[in-house]
C-alpha cells in the first residue's frame, strides 16, 4: 500500500501538473481574446464555447454555421477537424503569415496563438467569392 510520503509526493505532482495546465489555459484565453480583438470582434466572443468557433469561422472567411456539422453522428468529429485545419490556415493567411505558421496554429496552438496575438501583424479580412 502507499505510505504518507508517497501520497504527499503524488499530490504534489498532481498539483504541479494542474497548475501548469491552468496557466496554459489562461495564456490561451488571453491570446484568443487578443486575436479576436485584432480581427475586429469583441474579445469576449473567444470565451463562449461553441460561439467562439462560430465567430472564428466567420473571422477566417468560412460560414459560421459549419460548426453545427459537429453534431452529425459518426462523421462530425472528422468534419470539424477538417474545418479546423482550414480555419488555422486561413487565420494565418488573414494575419499575413505563411502556411507553415497555419500548420503550427493547428498542431501547437498554445504557442502560435501567443505569437499571433502579441506580434505586430494586422488582420486583413479574407476575400469571400461572390455567388
Structure commentary:
This protein has helices spanning 4-38, 49-59, 76-94, 99-107, 109-118. The model has no long low-confidence stretch (mean pLDDT 92). It has one domain (4-118). The chain is globular, with a radius of gyration of 18 Å. The longest helix has 35 residues, at 4-38. The protein starts with a helix and ends in a 13-residue tail after the last helix. It has five helices and no strands.
Describe the structure concisely for a colleague.
This protein is mainly alpha-helical and 131 residues long. It has five helices and no strands.
- Report the uncertain regions: none
Q: Helices and strands: which structural class?
A: mainly alpha
Which strand-content bin applies to the residues? under 5%
Biggest sheet, open or closed, and with what strands and sense?
none
H-E order: HHHHH
Task: Tell me, rounded to a whole number, the average pLDDT.
Answer: 92
CA radius of gyration: 18 Å
Q: Kindly report how far apart the N and C termini lie.
A: 69 Å
**Coarse shape:** globular
**Number of DSSP strands?**
0
The proportion of residues forming helix, as a percent range, comes to 55-70%
Amino acid at each position: 500500500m502507499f505510505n504518507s510520503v508517497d501520497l504527499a509526493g503524488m499530490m504534489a505532482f498532481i498539483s504541479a501538473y494542474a497548475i501548469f495546465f491552468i496557466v496554459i489555459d489562461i495564456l490561451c484565453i488571453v491570446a484568443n481574446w487578443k486575436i479576436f480583438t485584432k480581427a475586429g470582434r469583441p474579445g469576449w466572443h473567444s470565451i463562449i464555447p461553441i460561439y467562439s468557433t462560430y465567430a472564428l469561422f466567420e473571422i477566417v472567411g468560412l460560414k459560421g454555421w459549419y460548426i453545427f456539422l459537429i453534431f452529425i453522428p459518426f462523421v462530425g468529429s472528422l468534419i470539424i477537424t477538417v474545418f479546423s485545419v482550414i480555419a488555422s490556415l486561413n487565420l494565418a493567411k488573414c494575419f499575413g503569415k505563411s502556411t507553415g505558421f497555419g500548420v503550427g496554429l493547428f498542431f501547437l496552438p498554445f504557442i502560435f496563438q501567443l505569437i499571433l496575438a502579441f506580434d505586430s501583424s494586422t488582420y486583413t479580412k479574407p476575400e469571400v467569392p461572390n455567388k
